[in-house]
Specification:
Length: about 280
Amino acid sequence: MGLLQAVLLGVIEGLTEFLPVSSTGHLTIVEKLLGLRVDDPGVTAFTAIIQVGAIIAVIIYFRRDIVRIIAAWVRGLANRDHRSDPDYRLAWYVIIGTVPIGIIGLLARHLITGALRSLWVVVAALVLWSIVMFIAERVGRKKRTEEQLTLADAIVIGLMQCIALVPGVSRSGATISAGLFRGLNRVAATRFSFFLAIPALIAAGGFEAATSAKDISSTVGWGPTAVATVISFVVAYASIAWLLRIVAKHPISVFIAYRIVLAALVAGLLLAGLITAQ
C-alpha cells in the first residue's frame, strides 16, 4: 500500500466512523477500488487497526466526561454511598453493553473477516439498515436523557452493536437506532454510542495488531498503517462535534439517501463487472 492510499483510507475512516453510514463498508468499497484484496488478512487487520485513531479522538474529545465517569465508578466500587451517582451506573452500562460484541466478535471472527467482506453484503446492509434507521426515527419517542439510561437500554444497545459487525450496517447507525427505539433522545443515544465505541474498537484494533502483525508486515505494511491511523484521528476529531450538532437538530434518517445512492452505485459497478465482490 502506498502512502497516498493510506492517507485516503485514513480520511475515509475518520469521516465515516461516527456517522451512520458504515466506516467498514466504505473502507471495503474503497479498498476494492484501489485493487486491494478485501478478504486478505492483512487488509482486514489494517481496517480494524486504523479505527483506533478515531477512538483516540473520541477519548480526547470526551476526556472530561470519561474522567468523571471513571472517577464515579471507582468511588462507587469503594463506597456504596456513591452508587446512586448516574455516572457510576453509566460506567457499568458501558461495560455491560460492550460484553456482547466482545463475545460475538471473537466467535464469529472468521466469518466477519471472510464471507462478510463481500461488496454484495455491504450493498444489502446499506439498504436494509436504512429501513431500520427510518423506522427508529418514526417510532422512537426521543424523550429520555442520558441520566435516564437503564440496564435494559445498555443490554439492548450492546446487542444491537453486534449487528454492526456486518459491513454496511454502521456501528453508530445500529447503536443510535437502538437508543431511539428505547426512547432516548438523539443526543443521549449518540453520546452512549460514542462511549460504547471506545472499549469495542480499541479491543478490536489491539487484537488485530497482536494477532495479525505478520500479515500487516507482509501485505499493507506498518508504515502506511501508522499513517492511516494518524490521519483517521485528525479527521475523526473534527467530525465528532459536527455529528453531535447534526443529531441535535436533524434525524439520523438524513443519511439514508446517501446510503441508498452508495448502495446503488456499488451494485451497478458489480453488475457491470467493473469490480468483483471480494
